[in-house]
Design goal:
With 107 residues, this protein is an alpha+beta fold. Helices cover 39% and strands 16% of the residues. It has a two-stranded antiparallel ribbon. The longest helix has 12 residues.
Length: 107
């Protein structure tokens, strides 16, 4: 089955993700690194403002958009500047940025 789940992630921001079960696997949100970057940009209104807040050129942010992710080394800065949790900016790297729901869960 598929379900749409909505999470409040900050003032005026909500994240909707699709979850589902497939072949007996547990449900997992289908957010991508590109979605996380889009949330960060939306949180500060535009790519140029994000660039100013973290001290990079706007071209860098546009490059990240083309690549579809925030570079690993920039995740802490972007998370701090935007309020978007690191695990949402790079959901593909749970070993570096574990989801709070998964911390302490035995594998």
């Amino acid at each position: 089955y598929l379900a749409l789940e909505s999470m409040d992630i900050g003032p005026g921001l909500a994240l909707s993700v699709t979850t589902g079960y497939k072949w007996g696997m547990s449900a997992s949100p289908s957010i991508t690194p590109a979605d996380g970057l889009a949330l960060a940009i939306k949180a500060v209104r535009n790519p140029s403002r994000l660039a100013r807040l973290i001290g990079v050129r706007p071209h860098s942010i546009y490059k990240w958009q083309r690549l579809g992710r925030v570079p690993l080394e920039r995740v802490p800065e972007v998370a701090h500047a935007t309020g978007i949790p690191a695990h949402l900016l790079r959901p593909d790297l749970p070993e570096f940025f574990p989801s709070p729901r998964r911390e302490g869960v035995a594998a």
